[in-house]
């Protein structure tokens, strides 16, 4: 979970914009990545990643530095290093919430992912009757050890099949010609 990048700009608040960010920005109920930028023999702490204004080369990710950190100058070459344990915990929680949604035919109205816990909000008139049964379904999916894969489709394919998205409030990012 590391890779090189070049600093494209630093905004008025000190957020760093890179040309090839590895950091995932907060959004859709998922927290932004944390980690560090290594340059000129030192490391500075990245406290958060947020979506930045449109049109930024690098996907619109602003890296928010920890208090007291001095950003590298535009043009600087840096090594991005993500907090791997935190990212893996978010990935595992994200996958678990996808598994939970498989057990419900209801649309997802919202959710929140964290390293320690997460939640999904379903669009339903009343709470489910048998929570133990829901837990047993989820545990059976986990125990089946299904492979986790990703797949890319075109924006047009997603628009033609909106049932692929169960989340009512947040759609996958589109506009790049393909969607994961």
Structural account:
The chain is an alpha+beta fold. Helix content is 21%, strand content 28%. A six-stranded antiparallel beta barrel has the order 1-2-5-4-3-6. A hairpin with a 6-residue loop joins strand 7 and strand 8. The relative contact order is 0.15. The model has no long low-confidence stretch (mean pLDDT 88).
Order of strands side by side in the largest beta sheet? Answer: 1-2-5-4-3-6
Strand element count: 10
Count, helices: 3
Radius of gyration: 19 Å
Helix content: 10-25%
> Which strand-content bin applies to the residues?
25-35%
- What is the 3D form? elongated
| C-alpha termini separation | 19 Å
Order of helices and strands: EEEEEEHEEHEHE
* Biggest β-sheet strands, sense, barrel: 6 strands, antiparallel, barrel
**Classification by helices and strands:** alpha+beta
Mean pLDDT: 88
Taking pLDDT < 50 over at least 5 consecutive residues as the criterion, the unreliable ranges are none
Quick summary:
This protein is an alpha+beta fold and 180 residues long.
Helix-strand blueprint:
Elements: E1 2-10, E2 16-18, E3 35-39, E4 42-51, E5 61-65, E6 77-82, H1 84-102, E7 108-112, E8 119-122, H2 131-143, E9 153-154, H3 155-160, E10 178-179
Antiparallel strand pairs: 1-2, 1-6, 2-5, 3-4, 3-6, 4-5, 7-8, 9-10
Q: Which tags fit this structure?
A:
elongated; alpha+beta; 180 residues; two-stranded antiparallel ribbon; six-stranded antiparallel β-barrel; single chain
């Amino acid at each position: 979970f590391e890779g090189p990048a070049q600093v494209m700009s630093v905004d008025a608040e000190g957020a760093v914009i890179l040309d090839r960010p590895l950091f995932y920005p907060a959004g859709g109920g998922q927290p932004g990545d944390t980690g560090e930028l290594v340059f000129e023999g030192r490391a500075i702490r990245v406290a958060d990643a947020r979506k930045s204004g449109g049109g930024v080369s690098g996907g619109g990710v602003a890296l928010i530095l920890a208090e007291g950190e001095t950003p590298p100058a535009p043009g600087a070459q840096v090594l991005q290093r993500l907090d791997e344990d935190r990212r893996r915990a978010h990935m595992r929680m994200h996958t678990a919430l996808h598994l939970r949604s498989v057990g419900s035919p209801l649309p997802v109205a919202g959710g929140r992912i964290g390293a320690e816990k997460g939640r999904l909000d379903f669009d339903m008139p009343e709470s489910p009757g048998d929570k133990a049964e829901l837990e047993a379904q989820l545990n059976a999916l986990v125990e089946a050890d299904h492979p986790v894969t990703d797949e890319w489709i075109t924006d047009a394919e997603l628009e033609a099949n909106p049932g692929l998205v169960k989340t009512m409030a947040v759609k996958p990012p589109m506009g790049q010609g393909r969607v994961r």
